[in-house]
Design brief:
The protein has three domains: about 1-215, Rossmann fold; about 225-305, N-(1-d-carboxylethyl)-l-norvaline Dehydrogenase, domain 2, CATH 1.10.1040.10; about 315-450, NAD(P)-binding Rossmann-like Domain (Rossmann fold). About 45% of the residues lie in helices and about 15% in strands. The chain contains 17 helices and 14 strands. The strands form two sheets. Strands 3-2-1-4-5-6-7-8 form an eight-stranded mixed β-sheet, with helices on both faces. The chain has a six-stranded parallel β-sheet with strand order 11-10-9-12-13-14. The protein starts with a strand and ends with a strand. It binds uridine-5'-diphosphate-xylopyranose. The site of uridine-5'-diphosphate-xylopyranose has 20 residues, from helix 9.
Length: about 450
């Protein structure tokens, strides 16, 4: 099928590359011409494992453009995957979405086009995009009876495993009020639903993956599913962190507690890793948006609100733990291992490391940092932050009074801890992710602590 994708961020680019890999003909559009030039030259503007390989394989089916006039008229399906960054009130900024909808309305030309909201948008946005499209189309002197319908197809991909999550999803959710739109999207996703494509060697199909369920529903339900899923995952993490606080007081081991409850299939083991808490572009923004939407209906979301508060508290607990250990923070040197909000990405949006570094700087601490991937982005986005960037973990540890493991990159698991301990002024490590081997570090001469 012929597909256009508006926006070449994480969601748009991953979706475009996967659909092209499956054999669809895909035009990726971004109004940022420099991004399009880079993509045409085979350069990928984001860090995502395997994206370069899959893009190379899918390239014959892909085109990159900044022109709606080129991308839209032939497309049977148009995905809107533009950014919806948060505003101070928690409600997302819908400017890019509205621009995209109007521009699509200027160019649709087929007897039937499905316009799909892939961006995370407030509940009710499907209707709103539909009205913007219609207005824009009806103002055209050259309109020729083209028809279109709006659908919602929320994405559930995680950064770092975005391609795996797109090719082998747990489910595909599609919301539309027009049956014909659902049918078109069913055909589009058929290779994924039936898992009929040949898996790339570097992204093998897990044995557990069979046919993928598709949930087709109405627009508003699909939109709410996205928020409810992210809020639930976020509160699962906050729940284990709340229990972690009590576990610490009563002398229980939170990892054992998580394992013990996770073995109950009604609870499940995932998203129960206690620690510094969640970051990233979705959980914070989506929980804020859910609360904001509820507010518009005079409702409160006390569970989601608490989950946010508990998450913020985990960052403060890092400082509290360091205070407990070092007594005085002013004038100390503290090293942070990891800047990205989680491993295998260079994304720093709502990254705990940034918040923790700032809290420490505010208390007069000299902060040293390392990250295997995210340093370039850090310099671009937080270049004015007063931290010392180091090339490796050993350099970070030099003269430190404490180290904090903020992001559980694999390479931090097997460091030469003995030599790291010797380089430190005081060999204390706070493992913010329960990622390191307590016994090994203790044997290497470090004092080891976790948040709970
Ligand atoms: C998330 C959702 O998982 C995805 O479905 C949605 O579409 C976008 O938001 P992402 O933000 O890429 O994906 O990362 P995810 O792997 O979910 O992790 C989010 C944060 O939670 C990270 O900071 C991670 O470190 C933290 N986390 C995750 C925990 O603290 N504990 C856990 O047990 C799991």
């Amino acid at each position: 099928m012929r597909v256009a994708i508006i926006g070449t961020g994480y969601v748009g680019l991953t979706t475009g590359v996967c659909l092209a890999f499956l054999g669809h003909s895909v035009s990726c559009l971004d109004t940022d011409a420099s991004k399009i030039e880079a993509l045409k030259a085979g350069k990928i503007p984001i860090y995502e494992p395997n994206l370069a390989e899959l893009l190379a394989e899918a390239a014959p089916n892909m085109r990159f453009t900044s022109s709606y006039g080129e991308a839209i008229p032939d497309a049977e399906v148009v995905f809107i995957a533009v950014g919806t960054p948060p505003t101070p009130s928690g409600a997302p900024n819908l400017e890019y979405l509205s621009q995209a909808a109007r521009s699509i309305g200027q160019c649709v030309n087929r007897d039937f086009t499905v316009v799909v909201n892939k961006s995370t948008v407030p509940i009710g946005s499907g209707n709103w995009v539909g009205s913007l499209l219609r207005d824009s189309y009806n103002n055209r002197p050259d309109r020729n009876g083209a028809e279109f319908a709006v659908a919602s197809n929320p994405e559930f991909l995680r950064e770092g495993t975005a391609l795996h999550d797109s090719l082998y999803p747990d489910r595909i959710v599609i919301g539309a009020d027009a049956q014909r739109a659902l049918e078109v999207l069913y055909s589009l996703y058929r290779p994924i639903l039936d898992q009929t494509f040949t898996a790339p060697t570097y992204l093998p199909r897990p044995d557990s993956v069979g046919a993928v369920p598709m949930l087709s529903t109405d627009l508003a339900s699909a939109e709410l599913i996205k928020y409810a899923a992210n809020a639930f995952l976020a509160l699962k993490i906050s729940f284990i962190n709340e229990i972690g606080l009590l576990a610490e007081r009563v002398g229980a081991n939170i990892s054992e507690v998580a394992r013990g409850i996770g073995l109950d299939s009604r609870i499940g083991p995932r998203f129960l890793s206690a620690g510094i808490g969640w970051g990233g572009s979705c959980f914070g923004k989506d929980t804020a948006a859910l609360i904001a939407t509820a507010g518009e209906y005079g409702l409160q979301m006390p569970i989601v609100e608490s989950a946010k508060r508990i998450n913020a508290r985990q960052r403060d607990r890092v400082v509290e733990k360091l205070l407990q250990e070092l007594k005085i923070l002013k004038g100390r040197t503290i090293g942070l291992l990891g800047l990205a909000f989680k491993p295998n990405t260079d994304d720093l949006r709502e990254a705990p490391a940034i918040e923790i570094a700032q809290k420490l700087i505010d208390r007069g601490v000299r902060v040293k940092v390392h990250d295997p991937i995210a340093v370039d982005r850090f310099l671009k986005e937080h270049g004015d932050m007063q931290v010392q960037i180091c090339d490796n973990a050993a350099d970070v540890s030099e003269d430190c009074d404490a180290l904090v493991l903020v992001t559980e990159w694999n390479e931090y698991r097997d460091l030469d801890w003995e030599s790291i301990g010797k380089r430190m002024r005081s060999p204390f490590i706070l493992d913010g992710r329960h990622a390191l081997d307590r016994d090994k570090l203790t044997r290497a001469g470090l004092r080891y602590a976790t948040l709970s």
